[in-house]
Specification:
The protein has about 180 residues and is an alpha+beta fold. It has 7 helices and 4 strands, in the order H-H-E-E-E-H-E-H-H-H-H. Strand 2 and strand 3 form a beta hairpin.
């Protein structure tokens, strides 16, 4: 699925609920989309899980992780629900905190592709381009300044690394 399509889906969701506030209320969005959210002890290496049974969804997230990580995990699982739920009546997505991915002939298909799509969805819904550009202009942020980057991440309640990747993907921050 192309990132432009994912961007369009997240914009439609944000518009549907008239969300233009910061930080984006991802838990509220997930609940409105019919998902139940609950903290679960998933073990050290698991950030989140999405269980879909007969079209009903449940997100479990690891409460031992940072709040910004929990938000990204919930947004990521919401991405699986929105992007991949149509393919399966029942499904299970388990997302590990750290994952080594080796490039091979299957790298652009299957599970890795779905994970990249869910990450793109999470970034787009938590850090919508329109709101990013607005905040950068309103605060006169200089994105090459680490303090400004940290402040921008704080406004969106995301990690600095997530913000950096998002800005680079939107070509708002040049790659070093």
């Amino acid at each position: 699925m192309l990132n432009k399509r994912i961007e369009k889906i997240t914009i439609q969701i944000l518009d549907e609920y008239k969300i233009n506030e910061l930080p984006v209320p991802v838990n509220e969005i997930a609940i409105k989309r019919g998902l139940e959210i609950k903290a679960y002890d998933l073990g050290e290496d698991v950030s989140g899980v999405l269980v879909i049974k007969d079209g009903l969804g449940f997100i479990g997230y690891n409460p031992t992780e940072s709040k910004v990580r929990q938000r990204f995990t919930i947004a990521h699982e919401l991405g699986h629900y929105e992007l991949h739920n149509k393919q399966n009546e029942s499904a299970l997505f388990v997302d590990k905190q750290f994952k080594v991915e080796f490039r091979n002939q299957d790298s652009s298909t299957g599970e890795m592709s779905r994970e990249r799509e869910a990450n793109a969805f999470a970034a787009a819904i938590l850090m919508p381009e329109k709101l990013l550009v607005k905040e950068i202009k309103n605060h006169h942020f200089e994105l090459s300044d680490d303090d400004n980057l940290q402040e921008l991440a704080k406004l969106f309640n995301v990690s600095v690394s997530a913000m950096t990747f998002r800005l680079m993907n939107l070509k708002l921050l040049s790659q070093y």
